[in-house]
Amino acid sequence: MSALKDQILADMKGAMKARDKGTLSALRMLKAAIQTEEVSGAKHELDDAEVLRVIEREVKRRRESAATYRDAGRPELAEREEAEAAVFARYQPAQLDDAELAELVDAVVAEVCGGEPTMKDMGPVMREAKDRAGGAVEGRRLSEAVKARLARG
C-alpha cells in the first residue's frame, strides 16, 4: 500500500475520533475516488504518484464546481466544495513559486527544443515539465507558463 494512501486512512480515523464530519466526509470521497481508480481498467494498487494524480484531479474538480456554484449564486455549495478541495490539497506537495516554475520551464524548453522553441513544441515540453514538476504545480498554471515561454521564443 502506498504511504500516501496509508496517511489518508490514518487521517480518516483521526477525523472519526475528533468527530470532524466535514474532513471525514471529504476523506471518504477521496478514498472512494482512489478505490474507483484502482478497480477501473487493469486492476492494481496505486502507488504514490498515481494517488497524487487522483488527488490533483479531485482538487481540480472541486475548484471548478465551486466556481460554477458561485456563478449560479449558490455560495453555500461553493464553500463546501472549496473546503473539500482544501482537505485534498493537504496531501499534495508544496506548490512551486513563480521563480521556481520559470526556472523549471526554461530548463525543460532548453532540453526539449534545443535551438529555437516554437508553439509546435508545446506537447513535448508540457509532458516533460509535468513529469518533472510531479504535482508541485497545477496543470493550468504550468500550461500558461509554457505558452508564455514558447511565445517569447
TrEMBL record:
**Top-level division of the source organism's lineage:** Bacteria
Keywords (alphabetical) are: Transferase
Q: Does the keyword Transferase apply?
A: yes
Q: For this UniProt entry, which residues form the secretion signal?
A: none
Drop me one GO molecular function for this one.
transferase activity
DNA-binding found in the keyword field: no
User: What's this protein's name?
Assistant: Glutamyl-tRNA amidotransferase
Organism source for this protein? Corynebacterium sphenisci DSM 44792
